[in-house]
Structures are given as C-alpha cells and as structure tokens.
Design a protein that fits this description.
Strand content: 5-15%
CATH topology: Rossmann fold
Shape: globular
CATH class: Alpha Beta
Strand order of the largest sheet: 5-4-3-6-8-7
Structural class: alpha/beta
Oligomer: single chain
Number of strands: 8
Radius of gyration: 18 Å
Order of helices and strands: EEHEHEHEHHEHEEH
Number of domains: 1
Length: 245
C-alpha cells in the first residue's frame, strides 16, 4: 500500500478566471473528500458497489483514492484476452501496491467462436461486435449483482464522455458514479506525482490510451482517444454507450 498522506482537498475546488477587471470564481471537480462522502452515502443505504478499471496510467489516481478508505470494494478488470502483456503485469503490480480486491471478468464466448464467415476475428471485420462479446456482454451479469458502478471516465477524454454526468442511471437499475469526470489530464498527472504512483510501462513507448493489442496504436498528441480503433470511426467500446441510460 502506498504510504503517502492523502490530501482530501485535492484537486482545488475552485478556479478563478480574470475577465477584465473582474474575477470570476467557478466551482468545479469533485474533491477526494466529496468522493468519500458520496461512497459513504451509498453504503449507508446498503448499496453494493464495484469499480471497473482498465489499469492504465490515468486509472491509478482513482484506485489510489478508493484504496485509502474503501479497499474492500470489488475492482473488476475486463480481461478480453487481447490485452498487452504489459497491461496484465502493471495490473498485478497495482493490485499488490494498493491492496485491491481484484475480480476478473471474462468473455462468455470462446475466441474460436469470435470469427466471421471469412475466418477473420471480429476485431478486424466488426470491432463493435468484438467489443460487445469481450467487454459489454461479460459485464452485464455483474450489473445485475451490484447497485453502484464506479467508473473513472473523464469529460476531457471524448465528446461522448463530455456529456456524461457525475451520477446517472445505468442498466439493470444500477447507478453509475463518475467521480473523476471533471478532473483533467494535468490534475491526474499532478496527483500521480504527489503520491509517487507508477505509470504503465507502455507510456514511455508512445502509448497513452491503451486497450486491446489489435485496436491500439501510439497516440496522436491532439486527441488521446484517437489511439484506439484508428481509422474505424470509433472511440468507445460500448461500456459507456450501451450500458448507460
């Protein structure tokens, strides 16, 4: 477990903007104290909670925050079978470091059955269906078992995520809680530096948004999510489009 002291007022709650001679203060972003308070509210009414994580570098601050006061929450990792070996190694490192309760979510359909009539894997011919078989469908049974799904999506990651809310309904009567929604990449970096949290080993090789091997490439500086499903007019796997109301 990382021993650095958790700063509960991080990130700064207000930003002050200069507009001519006037200063405008805008309140944004959930602080760690507010995240903790919301989870305590869920627990006070016996809500069963889980968190999903892809175990990328930007995923670690939220896991670190949760581990400081709710390390018993199940952390679901959707193991598609197509991950980089470095992701699995990094996942195991973080689980041990933070003392997380890891739950592996596996596809319900064998890889041999994930091919089209031409013998190609669906990640080549139908990436949406591939994501359904390996991510969305496997998670659905868990939504029926839990009440609250915590996800570390951020509004600055894509146009779809920009329109999300901190709390909103999901499928099967679940509540989706997005505590990091209004954090930005700079704050994620600053938090990692503050608490000396490691980075995914592929970051140094030019990867930023890391998913399955066939659908990930080195990132475009102008758009973090463009590193995924390049050339396919696709930026989401379905977890944050199909499993949300």
């Amino acid at each position: 477990m990382v021993k650095s002291k958790l700063i509960t007022c991080f990130p700064p709650k207000c930003h002050i903007f200069n507009l001519g001679n006037n200063k405008i203060e805008i309140s944004i972003r959930m602080t760690i104290k507010e995240i903790k308070s919301q989870i305590e509210k869920y627990r006070s009414v016996k809500k069963k909670i889980f968190v999903t994580s892809s175990f990328q570098t930007q995923s670690i601050p939220m896991l670190h925050i949760l581990s400081s006061f709710a390390s018993d929450i199940d952390v679901l990792f959707i193991h598609t079978g197509f991950h980089f070996p470095e992701t699995i190694s990094f996942r195991d490192e973080i689980v041990e470091l933070l003392g997380l309760n890891l739950v592996e979510v596996l596809p319900l359909v064998a890889k041999i059955q994930q091919k089209d009539v031409n013998g190609q894997f669906y990640f080549v011919s139908d990436p949406d269906h591939c994501c359904y078989l390996n991510k969305t469908q496997p998670l659905e049974p868990y939504l029926k078992q839990y009440d609250v799904w915590i996800s570390g999506v951020r509004a600055d990651q894509s146009a779809i995520r920009k329109n999300m809310k901190t709390q909103q309904p999901g499928l099967f009567e679940t509540t989706r809680f997005h505590p990091m929604l209004d954090w930005n990449s700079k704050q994620i970096y600053e938090y990692r530096q503050l608490h000396h949290l490691p980075e995914h080993p592929l970051d140094k090789k030019g990867y930023q948004s890391i998913g399955c091997v066939p659908c990930t490439r080195k990132f475009d500086l102008s758009d973090e999510r463009s590193a995924r499903w390049f050339g396919m007019n696709k930026t989401e796997c379905g977890l944050h489009t199909d499993l949300i109301k």
